[in-house]
Amino acid sequence: DVDSTPALAVADLVKTFGGIRAVDGTTFSVPAGSITGLIGPNGAGKSTLFDLVTGVLTPDSGEIRLRGEDVVGRAPHEVAAAGVGRTFQTPKTFAGMSVADNLAFAATNQTGESALNALFRGKTVADEERAVAERVAETLDFLDLSHLADEYARGLSGGQRKLLELGRVLMLDPSLLMLDEPAAGVNPALTEKLLERVRALNDEGRTVLFVEHDIDLVMRECDHVVVMHNGATLATGTPEEIRANDRVVDAYLGG
Ligand code: ADP
Ligand code: MG
User: Fold this and answer.
1) Which amino acid residue places its CA nearest to atom 20 of ligand 1?
2) Distance between CA atoms of 178 and 198, rounded to whole angstroms?
3) pLDDT in tens, 140-168
4) ipTM of model over 0.90
5) Distance 28 CA to ligand 1 centre (A)
6) Domain ABC transporter, which positions (predicted)?
7) Residues in contact with ligand 1 (CB, 6 Å cut-off)
């Protein structure tokens, strides 16, 4: 059944750094069309997992499937071209570049030529530039950043920079969004705007996987939750199932 193929599935995934088993056999799926929260204490292996899925790191062993397709060994730009967009906890925006140029740069340079070719195959350079400019304008509008288009990124607040970081990733039209602590350090009003945009992206059919430390936010926003602990999967399920799981309460949520 094609519709039940997960957007992302990892199985028995292992990544060691010297003697440290950063990811130690984790197994879970991200249902297609879901908003899935990835939680777990510091050091649980969440960021390493993101690096493995996006091709920044190669696993020692285990499987990584995007919509059923094995992607172990793919380079980051190939994973991006396959529809995975990933934000970083510390935004990868360029302080000395305008907001609009940051977005244009993301479309053309972020993931190398092959991603660009996939989007604009068969178009002339002028057509490509027009397509990028249109997408920049759409993305600015979508994130309510149009009034800041010509500002240097360094002039943005921390929260606005998180929005721009999301915009950077949206330039390549990802079907799976992986967000690393998108709300960390963002004020409540901008957090609400960011979450509202994430919901809109999900309503368009995009799958969302996000790391977040605010458990109440995760329980409120997600339809599926994955709990990592010591590099392994401690539990997966609905927010209600996670809240009721004794192992999760003991290891992580506290008494
Ligand atoms: P999380 O994102 O859940 O806080 P990480 O994936 O960052 O966890 O880290 C998992 C474990 O792997 C930690 O013990 C961390 O210190 C270790 N680790 C992560 N990256 C490296 C690295 N490049 N070299 C050595 N150890 C690392
Ligand atoms: Mg981390």
Assistant:
1) 48
2) 11
3) 999 999 999 999 999 999 889 999 999 99
4) yes
5) 19
6) 8-255
7) 17, 20, 22, 40, 42-48
